[in-house]
Amino acid sequence: MSQQGHGVWGLDDHSFVPYIFGSSQYCPAIAAGEPMPTEGYLPNSPDPGDIAKKLIVDRERKHNMYFSAVGFINDVKTGPFWEHSPILFDISGVRSGWGKINKVCLSQRLLTDGANHFGRA
Question: What dotted CATH number matches 17-117?
Fold first, then answer.
């Protein structure tokens, strides 16, 4: 549980890895030397907002790490998703697609690691 202890889960509650890898699973493919996509998604990818839809989470969690992590939260938390996981819920509103979400997850992880590494967290 988060350090605030109010039962609200954020991305600091467990590893960023499933969110980074899972969002990248839905990103457009790139060739060597191309920049990481910052918008867009693969055809037939679920909408980022689908993390609040149990049936889609249950379907996608079998083969996607992002949805697997969200499914775990659903397994252990009760109540509306936006209430117990507001950061993930806010991220799910990104309209630019999974590329942007992947960039957000990476930048948040790097900020967290950098702050912890230099004793600022």
Answer: 1.20.120.1150
